[in-house]
Each structure stands twice: as C-alpha cells, then as structure tokens.
Amino acid sequence: MLSVRMLSFFILIFSLCDADSICPPEDNPLILSPHEIIEEYGGNPVTVNCSTTLAKHKGMYFTVGNETSHIIEEQMNISQSVSLSDWNVKIKCKVKLNESHECSKDLQVITFKNPEVVYSVQLENVMGKETQYRLQCDIINVAPVQYLTVSWYKNNESIETQIFNDTIKTPVNVSSILRVNISREENVVEFRCEAQLNFGRQEQKTPAISQTQKVSAHYAPELNTESTKAFSSLEGNNITLSCEAVGNLPPVYNWTCDGEIMLENANSLNITRVKHNTTCTCTATNYLGNITNTINVHVEPKGCPLTLTPSEMVVRFGDPISINCSTSPTDVEGMGWEAPFGGTGFERPPVVTWRVEKLEEWAPSPFCYVTLNNGSQIIVRPVITVYKTPDFVSVSDMGRGPMVEGREYDLKCDVINVAPVQNLTVTWYRGNETVKTETFNDSTMTPVNAFSTLRISTQRDYNGLTFRCEAELHLGPKGPKFLPNVTSPPYTAVVLYKPFLEACPDHVTVVESAAFSIDMLSCQPDGNPPPTVQWFYEEKLINPSKSLTRTDSGKYTAVVENSLGRSDTSVHITVEFSPSFTCKEHYEITVNDKQQSTCEPVGLPTPTLTWFKDGKQVVSPQRWKKNDSGKYLLNAHNTHGTAEHTLYLDILYAPEFKEGNESKEVLQGEDVTLSCSADSNPPSNIRWLYTAAVNSNITTEGHQKIVTITRATSTNAGFYVCVAENKVGRNTRFITLMITGNTSKVLFPAIWALLALLIIGLTLLMVFFHNWQKKRGQYSFVPVCQMSNIAQANGNA
C-alpha cells in the first residue's frame, strides 16, 4: 500500500497536470541534465539525461520533433542523444502518471552559427569642416539573430550597441548602420564594428568577430601661406617652381605657363634654360574644388650691359616710384627710359632714372634701353606690381538671419575695390579662431570686388559670437614688411535655439529655517528667444519665490519654453528641519506591552532620541514593567537643533492577589472572616461570589472586601470566590470553607469538591470567553452566573 504522504503527492500531481502534458514548473517532477544546450550547429551530438522524483509512474520517454522514443517503465532516469543538425529541434521529456495524465519538461536547445562580418564605408556629404560617413556592418549568416549584439567603437571607445529582436532560428543576414561626422581637427579616426552572440551569462558568449576601418575629414585644396608668388633667375638657368597645397583627398596638380600647358599631376615644375620673363600658374584640384597659385618669373639676360636697381618693385597705387638703369660698357652711344609717362629721352650713360611722383597706372610697362656704337639696341624691363588695399571689407548673412540652431547658413565677406586680386587672401575668424582661408585665381591687375563665403552649421554656442574676415595682400618678398590688410567690422551671430536649464543640480538639501525658495536654485534658463520658466510640484504650478517648509520635500520640475520648443528639468529637494514633538503629555500603557513609538519626535535628519527619568539617562525598555510609571524627559537632537518634551507614563496592569487559593476549616458556631484585596492599576473592583446566608455580611475596608460570617453553620460551608477586575483584566481567588462538628463533615467535602470542579471549569470558560471577546475589540465583559442557590454579593454589607 502507498503511504498517505505518497498518495497525497499523487493527488497533487493529478490535479496539477493537464491533458496537454504540462506541469507547473514549481511542481514538475522531471529534472533535465543539462537543463539547456547551447552548441554550434553541426557539432557532435549531445546526450541529455532526464530523471524523475516519482518512485511510481507508468513510464518515461522523449519526444524529438514528431518522433517518440520507447516508453521505459520502472526506471527513474532515461537519456537521449540530441543532434545538432536541426535549427528548430524541439525536445521534451515526459512521464506518464496514469493512462490519461502525464507531465513534461522542455529542453531548451540553442544551435548557433558564428557570423562573418563585412564592413563598408560610404562618404555621404561634406559640410564645411565636417565630413559625414555612413558606416555599414553586414553580419552574414548568423543564427539565432535574437542573441546577436553589434557594438561600434570609435578609437577603441564604445559608442553604440545594437541588438536584434527577430526570433527566427535559422541563419540570416542583418546590417547595422552608423552615421558619423568627422571634423578636420580629428584627422584620422578608427571605427570598429564588433559582432558577438550573447546568450545571457558571461561564460555563454561566443568570440567577438570584428573589422576596423579608418576615416578622415575631406576638404578642398588650400595653398600653403608661404607659397611662392614671384621668382627671379638669370637667363639660361634651370629653375624649379613649386606649388604647396594641402587637401583631402590629396590634390592633383596642373601647370600652365603663358597659357601653355606645361605639366600634369606634379607639385613642381622644372624649366630648362629659362629665356625670358614668364607667368606660370599651378592649379591644385580634388573633387571638392581647386586652388590656383600664380608665379611671376623674372629673367635677367646674361651678359646684359644694363642693370636695374631695383629690378622688381611692389608699389601702392598713387605712391612715387623710381628705378635706376645703369651700364658699364664704353661702347655705348646713349641710353634712356621708354614709358607712357616718366620717360627720359636719349641720355648719356652710365645712369638714367625712371621716376614717377604718383604712380596711377595699374600695369606700368616701362623699359630701359641702351644703344651701342654699332647701332644695336638692348632693352630690359622691371617687374612692377601695383597694389591697392580694399576700400572696405564687410560680413553679412545675406538677409537670412536670425539663424536657427542646427541649420546651415552662408556668411559672405565682401572685399571692395582691391588689386591685384590674385595676391588676395581672405581669412575667416570665429571669435579668435581661424576657420577658413581662401585665395583667388583672377589675373586681373585692376581693382575688382571679390567675395568669400563661409558655410556654418549653427550651434547654440554661436549665439552672440562674432565672425569677421580679413583681406590681406600677399605681395611676396619685395612687398611691404607688414602685409597690407583690412579687417571687416565684427558680425555678431544671432542664433535661435530651444530652451534648457543649465547648472541645475539633481538633488539639493536645504534647511527649513533658511527660508529657501525655488528661485534660489542655481538653475539658469537659457534659450533664444529668452524662455519662460514655470515650476511644478506634484503636477501643480507653484510660486517659486515661496519659502519651502518641512512638508515640501520632493521632486520639482521646471518647464522652460520659447517659440522653438520646451524642455523639462527635475530637481529633488530635501527640506531638513530641527526636531520637535507633537505628542501628548500623558500616556497609559499596559504592562508587558512591547516598547513602541509612544512619543516620537519629528525632524530631518531623523533625530536621536534620549530618555531621562529622575534626572538620569535611561534605556527605553523592550517591555514595560509596573515600576516604569513616572515622569520622563525626552531629548531629541539632530544637526539642526535640540528639542525636549516632558512625558508622563502610567503603566496599567491587571489585578494580582497577594495570597493564592486556600482551604479554611472552622468549627460550627465559630465566627469567620474572609478578606480579599488585589494590587492593580487602575485599582480593581472587587466582588465576592458565594452562597448567601442570613449570617453572612460583606464590608469594605480601603481596597479590600471582607466577608464576615457570624456563628458559622453547615449552610456556610462551600466555595467563596473573590473576583478582582479592572479595565486591563481580571483575576479570581478561591477559598474553600469547611465547617466541622456535625455529621455533614464527611458528606459536604465531597459535594463541595464536585462544586469546586464545576465552578473552576465555568471560571476558566468565562476567562477564555473574555479573552476572546477582548481580541475582537470588546472590553466590557460582565459574566452572569446562573448557578442554583448561588447569589452575588456586591458593595458594603
């Protein structure tokens, strides 16, 4: 036969298992080992064991997909080989409880395949100093994809993680896309894409598969500020002209001299045996634009009998100019200067000077000539650059302001009436930071108007920031010591942006006595247009200038709003305050009650409470005793102050008799006195319960009740019950009175013994019923005794 315990267990199993072979997990009698399988697809088969806690069953078996293994009876353990070549394998172990009920447990099988990673980079856009890339990480042939984590790293620092929710178990291809902006200041940045299968625990991770790519900001070519603008050489020398430009992608170079294409895809040009003055132009180009540098090559003939001092000059338009032309040969007939103005005519050697008091020609072309005695003539020309600084330089937003954060805008720098423009360099400044430099290719020598644009992606930090541009003429080594330049007046950007609160703490602790208000927080609203600020507490609008009190601790939310949007910021405020007492002065506590919060102070931080009695520090008891009544001084202290409170405790306790139950034997005819008193708080109400007789009387003396029997007879024999009761409880004392001296001496004790047992039983029943009523909240219980021939005597006899 089955034990009662085993039978109950089977009844429980029968009630919990349904016809679908499922048992609640907490009552399932099956145990799988291992409880889950996580293995790579196609690996060696894994053996799983299934055991049961049931000593009696109708058989155990496995189901693998739609196939069922043999049912094995009278065993508590079976095993099954699990193939790892099925992505959707479903395995269950089952135990038959009877012919119609069984329980089962699923084996979790995860077959995985580590992926391959293909990483590609696509440049999407170049915006000013930033380049936007689209990084794509293709994860090929991964399963199950729901456990896949793709992590992106920038210079080995994690910046983004992506997980996938698809529950398909077979291999799939997925992609993770990351868009990044690379600034020119960052130079080369390394990005890594890392794919990993993560099954929940640290030890259940596959090795990470990753690939790395490096990207950098692209920008149009820019000339080196020291690039050559002029070059001098003797006739017949070999010369090399260089062009220094930077850009990303690296620029391709093209050279032309006097309009003729000379060389492609090199940043230097070699000229063999230079013969005459020439102008060469270098153009550096990439897909974002090009930049041009023009170099004037001055060639002095070899063996020329003429010497120019200086041979090259840079002069401001309207300034005076003079150049000496000298010769040393003796076979000279004469020499002079030929020019539209300032010519000298034919003069005697060895020196002749070309002088103009006010040069107002943009492309002067004077030349010095010498006529030899044989009639031949030799000429030489100086290189003269005439420049003019701009009349003014200005920056404007072309009427598109004010700006809005996050949008792109073009600022325009207008340079008015400058020459020669090919020597002009415009430099942009944001505050004191150089943000762009631009040169110009126009070979026009007369004054022109030029402009440069600066594209900016506006940020809120730009609001109130100044932009300016500076126009400089780079005139080469023969030019002025200090570059001629004109700077624009500053353009002050006005950027509109959504509001927010800055310098706002997460949590603030204040003191009630300091009269702290919300508007005293360090929170500073920022936004353009200037936002409005409203504070809310418990979703209600509040006055931020109102002082906070002890009841105002909690979360406060500021809503800042302007025409571009709104934002919320929350601050948790704790209002601390000094201790105080709000309790009564007098408490009544029942003896043996557990110590409780009779009188607790309020304060924050929570005050330290110290008890004093009769001037001495005492420890608050775990349970109250009778002698704990009295006057107490309570002292509460925290970091913000101290408070005191006088407390009177009255310890209440049920009646207690000084004497216990007793038997008393007296002679017939003898006077008998029975007294009853009890110690209690509050004082007890004392009653006697006994069989009334004409010779008995009850009197009261102080707190005791006295039964007086005059000349006792057999009718006075029996039980006398003293009942002491107060609002805390009641107590009962029994006195058995026996009268001797007649024939009833033997009979009466037996009768009284029976009556005593009956009364004791009724009394215990009354006490039990009283306690039961008291637990239910009823505290007024007056028993009614309906014993025949028993009378109740109360009060004074």
List keywords for this structure.
797 residues; mainly beta; Immunoglobulin-like; 8 domains; 8-stranded mixed beta sheet; 6-stranded mixed beta sheet; 2 helices; 62 strands; 6% helix; disordered N terminus; disordered C terminus; transmembrane; cell adhesion
What does this structure look like?
The protein is mainly β and 797 residues long. The protein has eight domains: 30-112, Immunoglobulin-like (Sandwich); 116-217, Sandwich (Immunoglobulin-like), CATH 2.60.40.10; 220-300, Immunoglobulins (Immunoglobulin-like, Sandwich); 306-381, Immunoglobulins (Immunoglobulin-like); 388-493, Immunoglobulins (Immunoglobulin-like), CATH 2.60.40.10; 498-577, Immunoglobulin-like; 582-653, Sandwich (Immunoglobulin-like), CATH 2.60.40; 654-740, Immunoglobulins (Immunoglobulin-like, Sandwich), CATH 2.60.40.10. Helix content is 6%, strand content 52%. The chain has two helices and 62 strands. Strands 49, 51, 52, 53, 54, 56, 58 and 59 form an eight-stranded mixed beta sheet that branches. A hairpin with a 4-residue loop joins strand 60 and strand 61. The longest helix is centred in the C-terminal third of the chain and has 32 residues, at 744-775. The relative contact order is 0.05. InterPro entries: ICAM_N, ICAM_VCAM, ICAM_VCAM_N, Ig-like_dom, Ig-like_dom_sf, Ig-like_fold, Ig_sub, Ig_sub2. The chain crosses the membrane at residues 746-769. Belongs to the immunoglobulin superfamily. ICAM family. Residues 115-216, 221-298, 390-487, 499-574, 655-740 form the Ig-like domain. Residues 1-19 form the signal peptide.
